[in-house]
Amino acid sequence: MAARKGRRRTCETGEPMEAESSDAGTEGPTQVYLPGRGPPLREGEELVMDEEAYVLYHRAQTGAPCLSFDIVRDHLGDNRTELPLTLYLCAGTQAESAQSNRLMVLRMHNLHGTKPPPSEGSDEEEEDEEDEEERKPQLELAMVPHYGGINRVRVSWLGEELVAGIWSEKGQVEVYALRRLLQVVDDPQALATFLRDEQARVKPIFAFSGHMGEGFALDWSPRVSGRLLTGDCQKNIHLWTPTDGGSWHVDQRPFVGHTRSVEDLQWSPTEDTVFASCSADASIRIWDIRAAPSKACMLTAAAAHNGDVNVISWSRREPFLLSGGDDGALKVWDLRQFKPGSCASALFKAFIESAVWLPGGHLQAARGPRDLSRVAPPG
Predict the structure, then answer these.
(1) Inter-residue contact 352 to 308 (CB < 8 Å)
(2) Between 200 and 15, whose confidence is greater?
(3) Which residue among 14, 22, 199, 251 has its CA within the 20 to 30 Å range from the CA of 220?
(4) pLDDT-derived band of residue 262, with 50, 70 and 90 as boundaries?
(5) 8 vs 31: CA distance, rounded Å
(6) Peptide bond preceding 84: is omega within 30 degrees of 0, i.e. cis?
């Protein structure tokens, strides 16, 4: 949630009020900013995040920009809410020079919830100063060098081994074993040893260069361990099948159907052989890998959006597929009647670049470079 601050006051309806001459130089009251409603920001106004709107909020810097990250499923329990929390992440950088990039595993812990500011003169001020040190969030970071910017990172457990699939701007997809990195972020002494003696020697356990160009789409199967899909900017999708010995067989025959860049891929959460794809050709397609790649496309919404379809997310609760595109539309498709016009949609004023189903059935989407919206479930 954001609030707007400025030198002009605004009434509850969102309509501007004329400032009185006696306080024209003072700030007006803080109010909630609602995207697409009310007047746009005026000169001198800025959006300020209201931390009290969040149960928990923390932030960390990674040095170079990160285009992609993934949450590592840990063994601390599902649906935990007791504070402080611990979180494991995997991320990849897009530094200015190819040699400066890193693949990172982060452990964020001692994450306490937000607290309302104490009232003036209360004993809470002294108490806050006393426990401020104990409440400081902690971050451990293990990283390995990666030549080239990392377009996308997706992690998966293969038995007891944590692996990361990485799309590189250099046009190849790599798989890294992350178990050692996950171990050392839990042990400060082991982390120091790793950073000093081991990190430079970490290499991918498998790499595929058959895409003939870079890409962004990548997804691990949630049902078949080690099964992977990768899609590139040249419209091709390839299937990876795990083999004995910790390697993969990548089918050189691409799935045929899209005419432009493949933007996202999603395995079905309920069927082993079914996946969905979206593309800059404005279409969404449903595939079944039991058929030959040239005949595997089973369902198509040819004009799913008015422009590039950037992201899709498959609900784990209902037969729904979520999509977001450059047209600013966020759509929910019922796969039992999958065709253009048979979806629920919401229209925003900026392109949708990220969207996901949350565990409770809500939707969360990022529109444009800085805005995050949470939407109620359809119906």
Answers:
(1) no
(2) 200
(3) 199
(4) very high
(5) 12
(6) yes
pLDDT at 252: 96
CA distance 174 to 181: 17
List, as one string, the DSSP characters of 303-335.
Answer: TSSSS-EEEEEE-SSSSEEEEEETTSEEEEEEG
Q: Comparing C-alpha atoms, which of 187, 190, 207, 193 is closest to residue 146?
A: 207
Residue listed under structure tokens 């250099």? 170
pTM recorded for the entire structure: 0.84
Q: How many CA atoms lie within 13 A of 375 on its CB side?
A: 25
Give strand ranges (E) for 185-224.
Answer: 206-208, 215-220
Collapse the DSSP code of 182 into the 3-class scheme (helix H, G, I; strand E, B; otherwise coil) and give the result.
helix
CB-based contact 65:93 (threshold 8 Å): yes
pLDDT tens digits for range 210-247? 998 999 999 999 999 999 999 999 999 999 999 988 89
**Could you tell me whether strands 309-314 and 320-325 are parallel, antiparallel, or unpaired per DSSP bridges?**
antiparallel
Residue (of 263, 261, 235, 250) closest to 323 by Cα position: 263
- For the chain, the residue count is 379
pLDDT at 243: 95
Q: Is the pLDDT of residue 12 over 90?
A: no
Residue 120: the pLDDT is 63
